[in-house]
Amino acid sequence: MLFSLSAFAVLLAVYGFAKDSYNESYWSLFLPDAFIGLLLCLKYESASWRKNIVTVFCLGTLLINSILTYQDPYISWAPDDRGIHNAVAWLVENGYTQGIATFWNSDIITPLSNGKIEMWTEVDVDAPRTYEWLQVKSHDELPKEGKIFVIRPMSDLTDQDPTVNQYLIGTKDHLVYQDDNYFIYGYKNTEEYLEITNEITESLGQ
């Protein structure tokens, strides 16, 4: 209980005073343990003043967290929304079986294509290497042969990162699909993709 309440309070302080959206997923993991501890305290603690302190503390932190969550909400998109369904359907219809995407866009595509599309998760557009976690070991390297696609979210249009902006310009000749949610770029092979990405990185002096 002490750990849960302490973690709850620390996260409250960190995200409560940070200049960023407050993501409730960071503290919600501690809530069940905190409330179980609260119930045990109310049942077995003999001193009423201790019960009151713990109750007020728990309810107070919950109230403050609720306020912080809604005053600047963390906007999270659904990875299985209608937009990704349309994009995946287009990929299957056009014979794409190998794709590259960043972490939050990669995992849903394989199941939505009924296993027809194999995905490689890369770190980011400025780091076209595979992400070392949460994907099969055989994907330590990008596809060695065959045509590939790269899928990017429409949020790239409003991204302030100069690398992302330059990527939009440098890869426009390879744009094969676009809707309200995603861009899809097609390449003959991984070598062509890496060559273009490296040119973009070099142009930015990175």
Can you tag this structure with a few keywords?
206 residues, alpha/beta, 2 domains, elongated
Characterize the structure shown.
The structure is a single chain. The protein is built from nine helices and six strands, in the order H-H-H-H-H-E-H-H-E-E-E-H-E-E-H. It has 206 residues and is α/β, with parallel strands linked by helices. It folds into two domains: 70 residues; 122 residues, no CATH class. The chain has a six-stranded mixed sheet with strand order 3-2-1-4-6-5, with helices on both faces. Strand 2 and strand 3 form a beta hairpin. The protein is elongated. The mean pLDDT is 79.
Biggest sheet character:
6 strands, mixed
Query: What Rg do the Cα atoms give?
Result: 23 Å
Choose one word for the global shape. Answer: elongated
Task: Decide which structural class fits the backbone.
Answer: alpha/beta
Domain unit count: 2
Query: Helix count, per DSSP?
Result: 9
Distance between the termini: 48 Å
Helix fraction bin: 40-55%
Strand segment tally: 6
Major beta sheet, strand line-up: 3-2-1-4-6-5
- The proportion of strand residues reads 15-25%
Uncertain ranges:
none
